[in-house]
Amino acid sequence: MSSLQKKTDVILIGAGVMSATLGSLLKELAPEWEIKVFEKLASPGEESSNEWNNAGTGHAALCELNYTSEKPDGTIDISKAVQINEQFQLSRQFWAHLIQTGVLHNPQQFIKPIPHMSLVLGESNVSFLKKRFKALTQNPLFQGMEYADEPAKLKEWIPLIMNGRTSSEPIAATKIDSGTDVNFGALTRMMFDYLKDQGVEVHYKHSIKDIKRTPDGSWNVKVHNLDNGRVENHVARFVFIGAGGGSLPLLQKTGIPESRQIGGFPVSGVFMVCKNPDVVEQHHAKVYGKAKVGAPPMSVPHLDTRYIDNKKALLFGPFAGFSPKFLKTGSNMDLIGSVKPNNLMTMLAAGMKEMALTRYLVQQVMLTSEQRMEELREFIPTAKSEDWELVVAGQRVQVIKDTPTGKGTLQFGTEVVSAADGSVAALLGASPGASTAVHVMLEVLRRCFPQELPKWEPKIKEIIPSYGLSLSEHPDLFRQIFSSTSEVLGLNSEDHVTNGVETSPDVVTRSI
Ligand SMILES: Cc1cc2nc3c(=O)[nH]c(=O)nc-3n(C[C@H](O)[C@H](O)[C@H](O)COP(=O)(O)OP(=O)(O)OC[C@H]3O[C@@H](n4cnc5c(N)ncnc54)[C@H](O)[C@@H]3O)c2cc1C
């Protein structure tokens, strides 16, 4: 049985951090608009945005080596790092605004300070890191970063990583104390609580089956109510497809020309988790290493202090893997079902080009637990198997599209795809991901609401003072914004980090 519901202004598909951010922005800018949310699971933030399904790094390019590349002349290109950092500052400003206006209550429930470090081994990597450090610290956004290559200093910073290290190979690290650990699951849940309070209709256990244009240019969204089995039809003048890995199949259903020649390639992730308090207490940082040859950038190994369920743990990984599912809760038919006549050539071209990635993923899938331990021991030489267990992370669906560099090019960033008339937009890809949700959702507003934007801009600037400005070119404004957001988000003192946070042996893990 199907029923037709009355037309609404906005439909958000998926209750992850992206829909939460867009919904919260729209509630500020157009409070009178009616918004409906449909989520196929029973609660918000259960897929990639869940705290166990991502690494919780507040990506600000403080430690991720893949955002700074060495140019042929040997100098370091920091432009991507500056861009990511500026995007993260937008998120900090929006979150601080939500705290100040009482939308969110306790910043410690979703963001905590943690040093961000990069660690390299070998002469050429050490030379790269030193040059990167010099280039970054000339920019106001990266002030406070330190460099060390003396074992005594490194032992002070990362005792767990240095203890038992016998190799004489050169080693170096950078450290910056203004890094963050973000619980995107908690943030998503809190934003959805607020949206519900604001009268947004949030429907859980409602799965979107189809999206079709109506004669007046709106969108008819066919929804399967998983509780009673009924099919409902909801009409909206704007639809945001924030279905994470599930966005590509839904975008394809819209039939908009912009959805053609786009494919998706799922990469799964596995972390190793340690909950032994004796080990956990010896480490206090997010330490990012260098990706292995052939590894995609999101597979950079890192050893992180995490705060989940108000408990402290260490997570190492992610190990990449292959699963044809587009969502952790998806179907084995997702990948094959996404191959359409209009993207077949794009997908085939990508298959031919990405042999190194395929080899890498096959090799990762075949790893035994002892081989995973060996990779961990490159970080923690004294690591014991009994202290570590596996936890399955979320699925990332990397975008494949035709670009000026060739057919079927694998993209590692996040992409907004929208209809020419701005009536529908989808978010594809997952990197840098949740950290830059505010930047990405501002991009959705820019593309889809050009008529309203001039009217909205004064309010956006009030909420996000650096909107439209490059903070690296406005160092005084950066310092002012950084200091005020640090204060509001409780990032100035580390006292609260250990306050009430246990290093507990009963950290809940999900087994594979
Ligand atoms: C291993 C891993 C590590 C990561 N690490 C980081 C990190 O350290 N820092 C960072 O910033 N980002 C990180 N990310 C990326 C980040 O998790 C994602 O970018 C972000 O969570 C995506 O949010 P979303 O709202 O788009 O998707 P999701 O959180 O996946 O939400 C999408 C929602 O849509 C629902 N849905 C799907 N299909 C349908 C349908 N047909 N009908 C109704 N509902 C539907 C899903 O159930 C889900 O709840 C990581 C991701 C992974 C996988």
UniProtKB/TrEMBL annotation:
Keywords: FAD, Flavoprotein, Oxidoreductase, Tricarboxylic acid cycle. It catalyses: (S)-malate + a quinone = a quinol + oxaloacetate. Pathway: Carbohydrate metabolism; tricarboxylic acid cycle; oxaloacetate from (S)-malate (quinone route): step 1/1. Its EC number is 1.1.5.4. InterPro entries: FAD/NAD-bd_sf, MQO. Its cofactor is FAD. Coiled coil: none annotated. GO terms for molecular function: L-malate dehydrogenase (quinone) activity. Pfam families: Mqo. Belongs to the MQO family. This is Probable malate:quinone oxidoreductase. It comes from Paenibacillus hunanensis. The lineage of its organism: Bacteria, Bacillati, Bacillota, Bacilli, Bacillales. The gene is mqo.
